[in-house]
Design goal:
heterodimer; A: alpha/beta; eight-stranded parallel β-sheet; 10 strands; 18% strand; B: alpha+beta; 2 domains; three-stranded antiparallel β-sheet; 11 helices
């Protein structure tokens, strides 16, 4: 069942980057190759001053999409209405085309963990999530995209495969999918599955945005660090995903830790654009 | 396992008194979350981290989150009550607690949601209004001068000092929105009276003078001048100081 927020957000914004403090002034200094910006919602919901001034200036030039980490859509706690009120105000201030957060729980029992914790994939979880996703969309009054997370722990009680779980949620709520290709790749290494097969099984009509990021493959567990360049296998998976999608999709280069110089991020943007051009020439 | 039991398992994992789990993945998550909790304190209170190398972060982080559980969806705000925790812990030197107060005030004023542009938008010529970002802190040590001196020493590659002089002082802290800097100002008794008289409604200088002098006249403040001409002069000096420090904003402050 689609709700009325599902169909509006399929515009392709092009290739974007995350707005980071390090680049606040530099992004305005010259023409940039990126087409849009993503912000961490919580970094702008309770703050004014320089970040707000930068945001107000940036919205005149680029589309800005808020990407949250603390909505805690899967938490057993009630939805935080103060959070939703502030998120709505933010989306209105920057005229967001959609907003996104992660399919996870990042708080419970009144504590915020500031990390993305995997849900147990059961029928009970689906029944818990579906009305919450609908409520969030109705309160924010914008299309909502849920992101597949990277996860290192898999509960033996998770009975529903991840792709089925995601598809069921998208189907029952009208939410969209923020497909993090790097997360699929990282999970495929940690949990030993074929990333292409996983992506093929997703409801790709609902993909509104793609995330690309770097990870750390130096230990026993591959860690989704968002602190390095996108690696070749992820670029290749991105290309194959675009071919499956059959259309260009708004894509974001995510880089949250050890944020590099803008030139480095822009080089990733240019590479993503060249892949789009190659696939859809 | 049901959803609630599953999330309870995770919840217990992040308590600083919880044992390290055997499962490597759970161990990783425990490390991540506890790192977020401790890292944000060290980031917001970077001068404590920098100047007091023997500060026991591990113990104080665990005790802090026991007293003030991580209830904010915004990561930086987890650090908000750390000065209160430090003040209530009598093993912590008061100057460290006051430095924490200074650092949180600096951080929160810098990023205050208050909108200076809106505050001065409808001001008429000759009117002033209180900077809406203002916060006041009372300290028993001269933290502001000490921070300034140490920051200067850092710039000159000199070793910072840990000794802070004892001095009661009242600080007004505001954001100067023209250049996004945070301004700390030591207030004397007259300045604090003028600030109290200013309130948050716009006023002309004459009206503010009248209100301030009225308050001064009603108070018996010992060493304050009582001659009316001297008081007028003191008011004018103080007014100019508060305007220069961006504590009082004028229409041309946009």
């Amino acid at each position: 069942m689609l709700n009325h927020w599902g169909a509006f957000c399929m515009n392709n914004l092009g290739i974007g980057i995350s707005l980071r403090r390090k680049h606040y002034d530099e992004i305005f200094e010259s023409e940039q190759p990126f087409d849009w910006l993503e912000i961490i919602s919580e970094n702008f919901m309770r703050f004014g001053g320089h970040p707000r001034n930068v945001l107000d200036k940036a919205k005149e030039k680029w589309s800005i999409v808020p990407h949250g980490i603390s909505l805690a859509i899967g938490s057993v706690d009630p939805l935080n209405l103060d959070y939703l009120t502030k998120l709505k105000a933010l989306t209105k201030r920057i005229n967001s085309p959609w907003f996104s957060d992660h399919l996870c729980f990042s708080s419970a029992f009144g504590h915020y963990y500031h990390d993305l914790l995997p849900l147990i994939r059961t029928k009970e979880s689906l029944n818990h999530l579906i009305p919450r996703i609908r409520e969030v969309q109705d309160r924010i009054e914008l299309p909502f995209a849920l992101e597949n997370i990277s996860f290192y722990y898999e509960s033996p009680d998770s009975k529903i495969p991840e792709h089925e779980f995601l598809n069921e949620l998208l189907d029952k709520t009208g939410a969209n999918l923020l497909l993090d290709v790097n997360n699929v790749y990282v999970n495929s290494l940690n949990h030993k599955f074929d990333p292409d097969e996983f992506i093929k099984k997703l409801n790709l009509d609902r993909v509104v945005q793609i995330h690309l990021a770097g990870h750390d493959d130096s230990g026993d567990i591959v860690i989704d660090t968002h602190g390095a360049e996108v690696c070749d296998p992820v670029w290749n998976l991105y290309e194959r995903t675009l071919r499956l999608l059959g259309r260009p999709v708004s894509t974001l280069i995510e880089w949250d830790n050890n944020v590099p110089e803008l030139d480095c991020l822009n080089a990733e943007v240019v590479r993503a654009k060249s892949i789009i051009q190659k696939v859809f020439k | 396992m049901d959803l609630k039991t599953y999330q309870e398992m995770w919840h217990k994992l992040f308590d600083f008194s919880s044992p390290t789990p055997d499962d490597p993945a759970l161990k990783l998550y425990q490390k991540f979350v506890q790192h977020h909790y401790s890292n944000i304190l060290r980031k917001v209170y970077s001068r404590i981290d920098h100047y007091f190398s023997d500060f026991d972060w591990k113990t104080h982080t665990a005790l802090y989150y026991k007293d003030y559980p991580p209830g904010s969806y915004e990561l930086n705000h987890l650090a908000e009550r750390f000065p209160d925790y430090l003040k209530s812990n009598n093993t912590v030197p008061i100057e460290i607690a006051e430095l924490a107060d200074y650092e949180w005030t600096e951080f929160s004023v810098d990023l205050s949601e208050a909108d200076e542009t809106a505050a001065i938008k409808n001001l008429r010529h000759g009117e002033v209004v209180m900077n809406p970002t203002i916060k006041m802190i009372q300290q028993s040590h001269d933290i502001a001068a000490w921070v300034q001196a140490n920051d200067l020493k850092e710039d000159q590659n000199n070793k910072p000092t840990q000794s802070v002089s004892v001095k009661n002082n009242l600080l007004a802290v505001v954001r100067d929105h023209r250049n996004d800097t945070v301004v700390f100002s030591n207030l004397n008794a007259i300045a604090s009276i003028v600030i109290a008289a200013a309130g948050y409604e716009s006023k002309t200088k004459d009206r503010l003078r009248a209100l301030s002098l009225q308050t001064l006249a009603q108070l018996n403040l010992g060493d304050l001048p009582i001659d009316e001409n001297v008081l007028q002069l003191e008011f004018d000096r103080t007014f100019e100081f508060l305007v220069n420090q961006k504590i009082l904003l004028e229409p041309n402050d946009s």
